[in-house]
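Thread: quick sanity check before group meeting

JM: Hey all, I'm pulling together slides for Thursday and realized we never actually wrote out the predicted structure for the chain we discussed last week. Dropping the sequence here so it's in one place. If anyone has concerns about the input, flag it before I start.
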Amino acid sequence: MSDRGKVLSSRIVRELADIKVVVKRAIDGFESAKRNHDDLYLDAVALNLHAFYSATERIFEKIANDVDESVPTGANWHRELLDQMVLEIDGIRPAVLSTELKEDLEDYRGFRHVVRNVYTFHLNPKKLAVLITDLSSVMDKVELELTGFARFLQHF
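JM (edit): ok, ran it. Output follows.
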């Protein structure tokens, strides 16, 4: 599966570059909202936070499909997929994520669900502030851990 591993590795690296752009846009949008006292910027922040987690989850889905050959289904598949990424699968792959990062990502997973099911004007700016405050450090961990996993895939 070396060629498939190399392809997936390249996709992960490319997706991470795009996710970094989304993270910057979310942070910049939040700063603009504060600076201009304009809640409409928070809509863009919410959209970019949604994109941050959704793109990260797409990477997890590709790993589950291409490497694990087992993608969760059912009502709780989003949570189960994230849980799957902390598992070391003997003879197949190491853990993709640390437990610490998985716990950090739970907040963004939950927020993604809220954005999909609530009007943006109902979003809590204080909750957005917490997510934005943590976003840079969470992104640093995502990049570090997924880049490490991409290196593993080069020899998979």
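AS: nice. The two ends are 6 Å apart (CA to CA). The mean pLDDT is 94.
JM: adding both to the slides.
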